[in-house]
Amino acid sequence: MTESVRRTGGRSARVRHEVLSATQALLLEEGLEATTVTAVAERSGVHHTSIYRRWGDRAALVRDALLGAVDSAVPVQDTGSLYDELVQMLNDVLAMYQSALGPVLLDLIRSNEPSLAELQVGYLDERLKLCAEVIERAKERGELPRTVDHRLVFELLIGPVLGRALLTADGVNSLDSTVIVRAALYGVCDGQDRDPAPSRASGRRASAH
Fold first, then answer.
1. Could you say which DSSP state residue 193 is in?
2. Contact 134/86 with Cβ under 8 angstroms?
3. How many CB atoms lie within 10 A of CB 68?
4. Domains, the chain, ranges and CATH?
5. Which of 13, 55, 182, 192 could bridge 61 with an S-S bond, Cβ 3.0-4.6 Å?
6. How does pLDDT run across 156-200, given as a tens digit for each residue?
7. How far apart are CA 29 and CA 23, in angstroms?
């Protein structure tokens, strides 16, 4: 009986690997729309009924494959320095958006397909959890106040990336991860003591002179 269980577990892991590898390959080669369960079944050699039985639907399958690919492309590191960790993470993110995986993620973000709505939220939630781990470690080390909102840090870091990737022709090529991280952690004024919103009265005085 023990041998039977061991063989089943081995086959199960092998099938999972084959299906996810085929899904990732299709995503990178053909794109999000072309990555259907039927196409994955043909590529992997695993019957589509087995795929549905394990993942339930296409969105869950694509989610697993995408998260695996992103986890490999953007590993979360513990270097003992928040600044170093965020710069390395953002470097990996920029490289990912310039790779074949980038257009797939952008298609997912843009998609209005109802079946992918849960996948969109799930993908961002998983990335947010990993960012939370980095921020919580920094709080434990005393690098950040306890009141810092990890979600806001994540949004400050990823906002420029998605903004350039989705809204500009040159994409993320012109971004510098060190500049983004410094702006997120210390502000765009580089720590200088400046009044970001001068009063109207002082403005009138200045124009009167």
1. -
2. yes
3. 14
4. 1-58 (1.10.10.60), 74-194 (1.10.357.10)
5. 55
6. 999 999 999 999 988 899 999 999 999 999 887 654 554 544 444
7. 10
CA quadruple 100, 171, 35, 89: dihedral sign: positive
CA-to-CA distance for 99 and 105, rounded, in angstroms?
A: 11
DSSP state of 92: H
- For 192, phi then psi, to 5°, come to -75, 150
pLDDT at 208 over 60: no
Q: Which of 189, 201, 124, 191 is nearest to 157 (CA)?
A: 124
Residue 73: exposure state from Cβ atoms within 10 A (0-12, 13-18, ≥19): middle
8 Å CB contact between 138 and 120: no
Q: Is 56 left (phi over 0), alpha (psi -120 to 50) or beta?
A: left
| Per-residue pLDDT tens over the stretch 95-112 | 999 999 999 999 988 888
d(CA 82, CA 45): 44
d(CA 196, CA 88): 30
Amino acid at 158: I
Rounded Cα–Cα distance for residues 64 and 188 (Å) = 37
pLDDT in tens, 46-65: 999 999 999 999 989 998 99
Token pair, residue 73, equals: 């492309």
Q: Encoding tokens for residue 4?
A: 């039977």
